[in-house]
Amino acid sequence: MPAELGSLLDxxxxxxxxxxxxxxxxxxxxxxxxxxxxxxxxGAREAVVAAIERGGSAAYSPYRGHLAVREHAARRVAEFxxxxxxxxxxxxxxPGSQGALFLVLAASLVPGDRVAIAEPDYFANRRIPLSLxxxxxxxxxxxxxxxxxxxxxxALDAALAAGAxxxxxxxxxxxxxxxxxxxxxxxxxxxxxxxRALLVVDQLYSRLVFDDREYVHARALPGAEGRCVTLLGxxxxxxxxxxxxxxxxxxxxxxxxxxxRLGIVSLRAAxxxxxxxxxxxxxxxxxxxxxxxxHRDIRDGxxxxxxxxxxxxxxxxxxxxxxxVRPPAMSVSVGELVxxxxxxxxxVVTRGEEFGTATSTVESFRLNFSQDRxxxxxxxxRLVALISAHLVGMRA
Amino acid sequence: MPAELGSLLDxxxxxxxxxxxxxxxxxxxxxxxxxxxxxxxxGAREAVVAAIERGGSAAYSPYRGHLAVREHAARRVAEFxxxxxxxxxxxxxxPGSQGALFLVLAASLVPGDRVAIAEPDYFANRRIPLSLxxxxxxxxxxxxxxxxxxxxxxALDAALAAGAxxxxxxxxxxxxxxxxxxxxxxxxxxxxxxxRALLVVDQLYSRLVFDDREYVHARALPGAEGRCVTLLGxxxxxxxxxxxxxxxxxxxxxxxxxxxRLGIVSLRAAxxxxxxxxxxxxxxxxxxxxxxxxHRDIRDGxxxxxxxxxxxxxxxxxxxxxxxVRPPAMSVSVGELVxxxxxxxxxVVTRGEEFGTATSTVESFRLNFSQDRxxxxxxxxRLVALISAHLVGMRA
Lengths: 396, 396
Prior knowledge:
Helix content of chain A: 25-40%
CATH superfamily of the largest domain in chain A: Type I PLP-dependent aspartate aminotransferase-like (Major domain)
Strand content of chain A: 5-15%
Distance between the termini of chain A: 43 Å
Number of helices of chain A: 13
Number of domains of chain A: 2
Order of helices and strands of chain A: HEHHHEHEHEEHEHEEEHHEEHEEHEH
Oligomer: homodimer
Shape of chain A: globular
């Protein structure tokens, strides 16, 4: 591995990988969701234990996953997204959504290929192409507070004109919480279709949308057929991350190439754990609404706290469980702030530079607010006090 | 992905991926072990269910795995292999042994690099380097019946002189069941050490060794320190394949690069399933001896049946649960034989060409004899009858 790639792939500051300071009772790790605060959706555990008990037939599966698991997931994903999914050919069970993202990119890109990526966006959207020798071309996501989000379509046009084979974005966006407006998605699909490229949409958070906002599934838009791979899974809203299962749905020939790659990297998602998907989209009535309401409550409490800091920028999360916060001018860098918060105040957040290279991104940090409400409020009180103490013009 | 790579990565004939003919009651799938016939080692299920119940702390781990899991595995692997393992830096929990193999090769090879691979050997030892753009250089394993196995050391010297950075072999060998003699391993380690290369030894079957044969762990040999990565896991002998966990132990800097790659492909082995390793090497007294004896009994029954065919070659398995069978001249190709056995006789075996390109390899087929004894005997009776019916000079 070339040295510069080693540095790029450094995992020491990736979300969840930070070395913590001394353990403390009030520590809140905002780098990922707390699955004790929001426990796993009902039914998954029972389904997995039943699979373990079934034994041999559950231990091994075709690389793309057990057919029965794919049949359930295909039917539910088709209903949810509003476009058909063939269980035999158009869906693959993956080792988490990260696995799905790696597989679709590894199946689509060779060294030197260009790939258009929204920025800011999930750090792996940039790292995976680089690790494959491909060339990411950033397309700026404008998430200014108080207006609809928009993508720099000129940059997208330029990337496609330069031969970009794949366009990658998360919707809702990680880290900003933006839900893409229909008009933006239509513009993207039109361009991808016209360029005969592939659109990869990471919809990991698409069941967690706030304030009755309209959510549009790109794969159901005109022109998306045969051109769109959608990544979904129960790791976030449903808190089933410990099982490491997700799915990708897309054109049969892309799914077939993803299966080939999965055969190389780890053969299959764990045979027993695949059954966690049997409980997905099968939660009791009201379960999802309650989970959304609880997250909205925490979001609103954190927004209120952050917005008490003059000059701080933060957009109201439209979907997902992230806040992306840009503090005002401080006497320390954001990187320093993040380190001090972690080591001295028991507050773990993720540096903005994991999500892109633009100044507004690098000068921000991300919180996953899928946490215990009161502990999260207390931790952000400490963080806000820390920021306030370092505001330029204030005494530190 | 280039077209030729797509063809290389074709999964339709990979072990376990074969499309079966009509289902039948007496079907025996020798492409992988039957974990109903040899049920999972005790304790793993309980450990995983306890992890699910622990919740959040078990769902997420550092990419290289839960520290407590690594501590147990490091201690036990050190005892088993006779050389120390640092739990913090020298071990990584992987998505199965396939995951370990992919990660060590992806962390060590860039396009154009040469890699020496024993042949015949596990199909992924060749496919993974090719998928990374590296160049495999076969080193013939001589497994003639009735003599100690040997490697073509001249070919190994030539590969290392040509710059091979990595040498890969499985011990016990998959598909032939060879256990490498100490002298051969010493010669390999000396050469790898002299060339400052890396030796990767897949020891997935190293607990299943027959007839009190001496088994030498390459990592414990003089010169191996800092030059050897050992792949181990509980998928085979212990029948824990449904959890998809394995480990790699090796030099700290290689393990660190493997963790970076794991962060790219799927973040971590499933958080809950990692705890299956807590039961590994903790089986009750006598459990392993009984499992070995049961496999030896099946091996001997199958060898007797195959050796009733005049001119058929098969070596007595020294370790692992494979037989690699070369039928005598037949009126059909081995590929045809394998197809007919699968589609018409309910006997699934794996074509030799999955394991190498030499004539003796391509003209063989592999069976995993970790099966129900009586069903396996009956299936091989059908297979032997099929071979006998197609012997050149016999009526078909």
